[in-house]
Specification:
The complex is a heterodimer of chains A (538) and B (208). Chain A has helices spanning 23-42, 123-126, 242-247, 276-280, 346-354, 360-372, 419-436, 439-486, 491-519, 523-526; strands at 43-51, 63-66, 69-79, 86-93, 105-109, 112-114, 117-119, 129-133, 143-145, 159-166, 177-180, 183-193, 200-207, 219-222, 227-231, 234-238, 250-253, 268-273, 288-294, 306-309, 312-322, 333-339, 375-383, 388-395, 411-413. Chain A is an alpha/beta fold. Chain A is elongated and about 240 Å long. Chain B has two domains: 1-42, no CATH class; 46-207, Butyryl-CoA Dehydrogenase, subunit A, domain 3 (Up-down Bundle). Classes of the chains: A alpha/beta (538), B mainly alpha (208).
Chain lengths: 538, 208
């Protein structure tokens, strides 16, 4: 090297020993590790949901919310291999890993509008999110098929699910309210055709605690829309609330006295009646069909018009047909009615006990007896204002005997003209008789008579009245004379007074004579004795 | 080689603060610079080891700095977390490619370059490599200088969170990622400072 005299420095070549500076990377590693652990701890399962469309969904932004709590986030959206739908990958939070179980449902919450309801309005600003409904299952699952519409019941509220069967849906729409005593206690959550297409099935959800009023004897009826009916009973207008007018509604009630008051379990099936009257009516039992043949116009009788037996509604008109009778060349109206004998109440029970209501044949025999006693069908006006008719089955006193064939099905009940018809006929016959009177001749005679009377009155005026006036004058003079004669100072009065005086004296003598003769009746023969004082007559 | 060798080989040591050259004997006896009293090091104590330690710490912190969100923006229509890389992507998608490039260079390229460069320097020093000593020294100087430019991202987040505070309309909040990122910048800078570039020249040839 350059200068040899310099002492050779002792180079301290230290052995490598770990410096304290290594604490820094260790601390960094610890922090990183703790982050890793905490992330791993909070990271939940990754699930895949398939939807028809990814409308409104965004990777990294769209959240998965359960009861409005964020439990996950969309991390990827892809089209399925067969291009049939989209696969949305969601990372759930660790705390929500139970959500990914077998009966969980996912759907996209978007703004939705319906009559009477609006939902998901908040998503207008915040963007769509994925809603979750969990079930009871604990079976884990990673692949789901998302619902296109929100499930009718979110977050499993307490209540009872009720299934109704109906012939048609009427005015009931999805979400329509369910009323109990006009208070909304539930809503329609589903409606679909029966599998065989012979009716519809409506699912209701009755919220707790009102669901305990639904028992197995509860009746449901369609309370929606505006029920305007013009029947024999007059004009009827029924509605529950304005909402139910728009979207329909269903009401229910339990018959007051029932032996079975067990609350209905979820999924119990009921029948949806057309209206309250139909719902609350006692069970109709087996329907029977009867036929009636009327020889008159039945204008005002409509299908569905009531059939009343002695004033009790036991059925309704089922069909009205026009027939042609070739022999008489007339057009009788054939009315078929459906009757429910069970509506006769106690009478039916009694008849059933007697065994007469059991079979068709015994029923026919019974009707035959009733017909023999005067049972007739008769159209009667139910409402004079509207002219609606109903059919009355009644015992008509003095009805003509009618033919009844118990073998014919449906049973044919003899008929009578309607009471109004009868009245019309009588009035017509009276009018006919009036018509038959020789009105012209009568008028002519009356006219002649009146002319004669007129002539007579003329004669009276011209001839009789003057002579009568003369007669009156004469009479007046006569009365004046009489007046004069009767005056106090008239000679006639004087002489009358004298005459009366003499008559009075004469009467006194006659009395003395009669007294004397009383005492001495022999005087009539012997004559008068010598007069004694006080005895002799004057 | 025309150069006479290292100062150490010639028995001198320079003060890193004031530049006074002392003889090794003085330095060993006193341990301090005669002029400014700074500690004299023939070579920084355990320089390679300390650099490596800081570098490893920086590399470890670089992972959460990039994975964790650095900022959370709340606006009309929901909030979103953004990491450094998602921020770059969103700037690029929004058409601000220049800003995206700047942030990319400052936040991704520079720290990565620093780590790689220091790694390369440490590796070559350990091997007492003769390869491109002058260039490696230039590389070290470059690493030392660009180090703090990575703080750009931290400043961006700090400014944004300070300025974007409109309550319901829009707010921005820092997220833990930025702390890690800041730590990355600091640790790599410390690593660069810990490295003694004189080691580059301590080759086998120089020792020999």
């Amino acid at each position: 090297m350059a200068e040899e005299n310099l002492p050779v420095p002792q180079i301290r070549s230290r052995r490598w020993r770990p410096s304290l500076v290594w604490l820094v990377p260790m601390a960094a590693a610890l922090v990183g590790l703790s982050l890793l652990i905490s992330t791993w701890k909070t990271m939940g399962p990754r699930i895949t949901i398939s939807f028809q469309t990814a409308e409104g969904l965004e990777v990294g932004k769209t959240l998965v919310k359960y009861r409005d709590v964020t439990i996950g986030r969309v991390t990827a959206i892809a089209v399925s291999p067969d291009h049939g739908n989209v696969l949305v990958t969601v990372e759930l939070a660790k705390s929500a890993q139970d959500v990914a179980s077998d009966d969980t449902h996912f759907w996209v919450v978007r703004p939705r509008f319906g009559v009477g309801w609006v939902s998901g309005l908040n998503t207008l600003l915040s963007g769509s999110f994925i809603g979750v409904q969990t079930g009871a299952s604990r079976l884990p699952r990673r692949r789901f098929v998302g619902l296109e519409d929100p499930p009718p019941l979110e977050h499993g509220p307490h209540g009872t699910l009720v299934l109704l069967h109906a012939d048609d849906l009427g005015s009931v729409s999805l979400g329509a309210p369910v009323y109990f005593r006009r208070l909304q206690v539930g809503r329609v959550i589903d409606e679909r055709l029966e599998p065989d297409g012979r009716g519809v099935q409506v699912a209701l959800f009755i919220d707790a605690p009102s669901d305990r009023f639904v028992n197995e004897s509860t009746r449901f009826w369609n309370a929606g829309g505006l029920d305007v009916s013009l029947g024999a009973g007059g004009l009827n207008l029924k509605t529950q609330s304005l909402i139910s007018v728009l979207v329909g509604g269903i009401a229910f009630e339990s018959p007051p006295v029932t032996s079975d008051v067990r609350p209905a379990i979820s999924g119990t099936q009921f029948f949806l009646y057309k209206d309250q009257a139909a719902a609350m009516a006692p069970p109709d039992g087996e329907p029977h069909y009867v036929r009636m043949r009327f020889e008159q116009s039945l204008r005002g009788l409509s299908i569905g018009a009531p059939v009343e037996f002695v004033g009790v509604n036991i059925g309704s008109v089922f069909s009205i047909d026009l027939d042609y009778d070739a022999t008489t060349q007339r057009f009788p109206v054939v009315v078929t009615a459906v009757i429910y004998p069970r509506r006769m109440g106690r009478a039916y029970e009694v008849l059933a006990q007697q065994g007469t209501a059991q079979s068709d044949d015994s029923m026919a025999r019974l009707v035959g007896q009733l017909v023999a006693r005067g049972l007739r069908a008769q159209p009667r006006p139910g409402n004079l204002l509207t002219g609606q008719l109903y059919l009355a089955l009644d015992f008509i006193a003095g009805a003509q005997t009618a033919r009844f064939d118990p073998a014919v099905r449906p049973l044919e009940i003899p008929t009578m003209r309607g009471s109004i018809d009868e009245l019309q006929l009588r009035i017509a016959s009276i009018v006919d008789k009036i018509d038959a009177l020789p009105m012209a001749a009568i008028a002519r005679h009356v006219d002649e008579d009146l002319t004669g009377i007129h002539a007579a009155i003329d004669q009276l005026n011209n001839q009789m009245i003057p002579s009568v006036t003369g007669t009156f004058g004469a009479a007046h003079m006569t009365l004046g004379n009489i007046d004069r004669v009767l005056a106090d100072d008239s000679p006639q009065m004087d002489s009358l007074e004298q005459t009366l005086e003499q008559a009075r004296k004469t009467m006194g003598s006659i009395r003395a004579l009669t007294d004397y003769l009383d005492r001495h009746p022999e005087a009539l023969i012997r004559g008068r004795k010598a007069t004694k004082r006080g005895e002799a007559a004057p | 080689m025309t150069l006479p060798g290292t100062a150490r080989a010639m028995g001198f040591v320079a003060c890193r603060s004031c530049g006074l050259v002392s003889t090794l004997t003085d330095a060993l006896r006193r341990g301090r610079c005669a002029r400014c009293a700074s500690t004299l090091h023939v070579r920084e104590t355990a320089s390679a080891q300390r650099t490596l330690a800081w570098l490893v710490a920086g590399m470890l912190l670089y992972v959460p700095a990039n994975v964790l969100p650095v900022m959370h923006t709340n606006g009309v229509g929901g909030g979103a977390d953004s990491t450094i890389f998602s921020g770059i992507v969103s700037f690029w998608r929004a058409g601000a490619w220049d800003i995206a490039v700047i942030i990319f260079i400052a936040s991704v390229a520079v720290p990565a370059t620093k780590v790689l460069s220091l790694g390369l320097l440490l590796w070559t020093v350990q091997r007492r490599s003769e390869w491109a000593k002058a260039h490696r020294t230039k590389l070290y100087r470059a690493v030392d200088i660009i180090g703090y430019w990575s703080m750009l991202d931290v400043v961006v987040v700090a400014l944004t969170t300070a300025l974007l505070q409109f309550k319901a309309l829009g707010t921005a909040e820092p997220r833990p990622g930025i702390v890690f990122f800041c730590a990355v910048v600091v640790t790599t800078m410390v690593a660069a400072k810990s490295f003694d570039p004189r080691l580059i020249w301590d080759t086998r040839a120089a020792d020999g």
